[in-house]
Amino acid sequence: MKGLIQQSLSGFYDILSGNQIYRTRARGNFRARKIKPIVGDRVEFSSEDLQHGYLLKVLPRVNELKRPPVANVDMAVVVTAAVQPTMSTNLLDRQLVALEKQGIRPCLFFSKTDLTTDEQWQALQEVVRGYSRAGYQIFCDRDPFAKEQLARLQAQLDGHIVTMMGQTGAGKSTLLNHLAPQLQLATGEISTALKRGRHTTRKVSLLQVGQALIADTPGFSSYEDLSITKEELPQLFPEMAKLAPQCRFRGCLHLKEPGCAVKAAVSDGIIMKSRYDNYLQFQDLVASRKPIYEKRRDH
Ligand SMILES: Nc1nc2c(ncn2[C@@H]2O[C@H](COP(=O)(O)OP(=O)(O)OP(=O)(O)O)[C@@H](O)[C@H]2O)c(=O)[nH]1
Ligand SMILES: [Mg+2]
Ligand SMILES: [Zn+2]
Prior knowledge:
Layout: E1 2-9, E2 12-17, E3 20-26, E4 42-47, E5 53-58, E6 64-65, E7 70-71, E8 75-81, H1 89-101, E9 105-111, H2 118-133, E10 137-139, H3 147-157, E11 161-165, H4 172-179, H5 190-196, E12 205-209, E13 212-216, H6 238-243, H7 261-267, H8 273-298
Parallel strand pairs: 3-5, 8-9, 8-11, 9-10, 11-13
Antiparallel strand pairs: 1-2, 1-4, 2-3, 4-5, 6-7, 12-13
Helix pairs in contact: 1-8
């Protein structure tokens, strides 16, 4: 039989096939072959009944996200709190780069907009315009859970395997609860958060939300690495990739090169200064990490 891993919990894999969920254990030597089945994997399995089955084979992945660990995702909702915690475009851009690298289409959802002051709200509009110009689809209503916005988001997600992304406490589970109230996902009230540790959502599973399968995931606080080359990085900023053919030099990295269309667009305020600054910072990161990767390869 074929299906999709919907949830993985202490050695069991729940596989969605047809409209049923089959509980299985991995059989065969996945560990020796260095394959760890993850949520979203398309798999072959055998099953006596709904409770006792064996996961036999993981089919090739279209893509694979490390944080959160989900395979075969085609869209992501990047949830960013407008306030609480203070918005970081750096963190947002890291997430976008990681998604672009995997060929996953991101859309941006701004949460906690209801908590912004008029001044913070105005400043956020500038950010929204910048990311729209970069080509991203954005959901930013002053009432984050306005019916119209939720319907528009749901329509985008239907038919896709989606992952939620965003810092812990950003509001990923809260958003899913608004899209599908029957889920009743735990969200981060301070008291429970303290009891359970930092993340309210601790495991990854795919949830049926309308016609979409969505992975609610534990948030993260930082990304440890961008395993990307310096030539690859400018491709992962769509607005830069689009302008690159207008740079004087082919393969322009938009750093010190003369006649660079990207730098001109930054000066003209077409590309967000924060995006470009983050780009430069990621280039530095890539440059400083490269020797580590090469060393690892020697072993
Ligand atoms: N006012 C307001 N509060 C929100 C909004 N989104 C989330 N919250 C609150 O923020 C807190 C954290 O929300 P969660 O949904 O648990 O955050 P999360 O992203 O799932 O966090 P992790 O599971 O730890 O990664 C909860 O107390 C929510 O009620 C929003 O748009 N407006
Ligand atoms: Mg959560
Ligand atoms: Zn350039």
